[in-house]
């Protein structure tokens, strides 16, 4: 076991997707792009592939889709980022489903036996057709993107706009627009929910109506414990200077592992359930914490994310969003799939 480890609770993942299905009354398109939001696409899809409530997967690009197929994933894989001319051969070979959002995508698919989904821009201003209605017998699904799902009025305006588009496609099999935050709208004409963040146990809103279980724990070892005198600087740029003799610990986890430098002198980590303040600047490979109020020795584990602290809570302190913190967890942090965070049930690694 390495100095830093990310544990994925398989049972919590299963609970979360079932809770999402029960609430929405729809099957899930599980979003596992960006290595499953930095968690581990290999481990997450291994769990979700066996579940009936997960209908298919969504990734950002061709490379991610190919990677899932080579891992042995059999369910449908939706590629959200479209298709380019030099990618068509692999889309066909690996049986990937492109999302068409531009006339160029339609051009490169001309004459090919391939099903696809069409994306419409109803207020995101990113990908999607705005005033061009695609007519093609190969269209299997329709989607749009809620740009601000916590803004109820604007989201309902987007839903209404999208409904008019969907009415032009009476035979389409799949309609999806609800995200982890957007499931609260329970859009009646949608067939699936397209969710990512909530699968991993992170609530996208404070008053989220679905009971989720935290599925991710990140912990790292204390590699040094020592006493410092008063008036002693700590870390780069001397942003913290001890006001009294202090016991400090060095955690083998820094911004190269995914702990935002914005948490310097601001955030806390946890040892045996007790918070320990971050002292000074977070460095590339290590973070210094205050051990004055906790009993800890070199070799002990320190919780970065888990029972006592979520990505969302850390993100609020850091002035960012949980997605960014999750995606920044580096490859040198070992990923392990466990059952109820007790015993390994799968392979290690990314």
Keywords:
19 strands, about 20% helix, about 350 residues, 9 helices, disordered C terminus, 8-stranded parallel β-barrel, 7-stranded mixed sheet, alpha/beta, elongated
What can you tell me about this protein's structure?
This protein is an alpha/beta fold and 350 residues long. The protein is 22% helix and 27% strand. The strands form 4 sheets. The protein has an 8-stranded parallel barrel with strand order 2-3-4-5-6-7-8-9. Strands 1, 10, 13, 16, 17, 18 and 19 form a 7-stranded mixed β-sheet that branches. The protein has a two-stranded antiparallel sheet with strand order 11-12. A hairpin with a 5-residue loop joins strand 11 and strand 12 (240-241). The longest helix is centred in the first third of the chain and has 15 residues, at 10-24. The radius of gyration is 23 Å and the shape is elongated. The relative contact order is 0.15.
SSE inventory with pairings:
Layout: E1 4-9, H1 10-24, E2 27-31, H2 33-37, H3 41-48, E3 54-59, H4 62-70, E4 76-79, H5 88-93, E5 97-100, H6 103-108, E6 116-119, E7 139-143, H7 152-166, E8 174-178, E9 192-195, E10 216-228, E11 233-234, E12 240-241, E13 246-251, E14 268-271, E15 274-277, E16 287-290, E17 301-305, H8 311-318, H9 322-327, E18 334-339, E19 343-348
Parallel strand pairs: 1-18, 2-3, 2-9, 3-4, 4-5, 5-6, 6-7, 7-8, 8-9
Antiparallel strand pairs: 1-10, 10-13, 10-17, 11-12, 13-16, 14-15, 18-19
């Amino acid at each position: 076991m390495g100095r830093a480890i990310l544990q994925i609770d398989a049972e919590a993942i299963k609970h979360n997707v079932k809770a999402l299905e029960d609430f929405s009354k729809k099957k899930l398109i599980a979003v596992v792009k960006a290595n499953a939001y930095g968690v581990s696409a290999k481990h997450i899809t291994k769990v979700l592939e066996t579940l009936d409530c997960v209908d298919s997967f969504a990734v950002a690009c061709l490379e991610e889709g190919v990677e899932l197929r080579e891992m042995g994933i059999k369910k449908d894989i939706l590629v959200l980022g479209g298709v380019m001319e030099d990618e068509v051969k692999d889309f066909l070979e690996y049986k990937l489903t492109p999302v068409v959002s531009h006339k160029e995508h339609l051009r490169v698919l001309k004459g090919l036996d391939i099903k696809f989904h069409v994306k419409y821009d109803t207020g995101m201003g990113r990908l999607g057709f705005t005033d061009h209605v695609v007519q093609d017998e190969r269209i299997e699904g329709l989607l749009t993107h809620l740009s601000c799902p916590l803004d109820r009025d604007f989201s309902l305006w987007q839903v209404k706009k999208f409904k008019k588009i969907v009415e032009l496609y009476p035979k389409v099999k799949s309609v999806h627009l609800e995200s982890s935050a957007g499931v609260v709208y329970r859009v009646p004409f949608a067939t699936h929910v397209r969710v990512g963040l909530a699968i991993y146990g992170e609530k996208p809103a404070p008053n989220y109506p679905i009971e989720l279980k935290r599925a991710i724990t990140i912990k790292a070892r204390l590699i040094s414990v020592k006493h410092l005198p008063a008036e002693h600087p700590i870390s780069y740029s001397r942003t913290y200077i001890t006001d009294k003799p202090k016991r400090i610990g060095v955690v083998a986890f820094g911004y190269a592992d995914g702990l935002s430098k914005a948490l310097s002198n601001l955030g806390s980590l946890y040892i045996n359930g007790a918070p320990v303040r971050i002292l000074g600047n977070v460095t590339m490979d290590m973070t210094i914490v205050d051990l004055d109020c906790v009993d800890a020795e070199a070799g002990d584990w320190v919780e970065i994310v888990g029972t006592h602290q979520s990505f969302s809570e850390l993100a609020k302190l850091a002035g960012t969003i949980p997605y960014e913190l999750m995606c920044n967890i580096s490859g040198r942090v070992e990923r392990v799939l466990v059952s109820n965070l007790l015993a390994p049930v799968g392979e290690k690694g990314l």
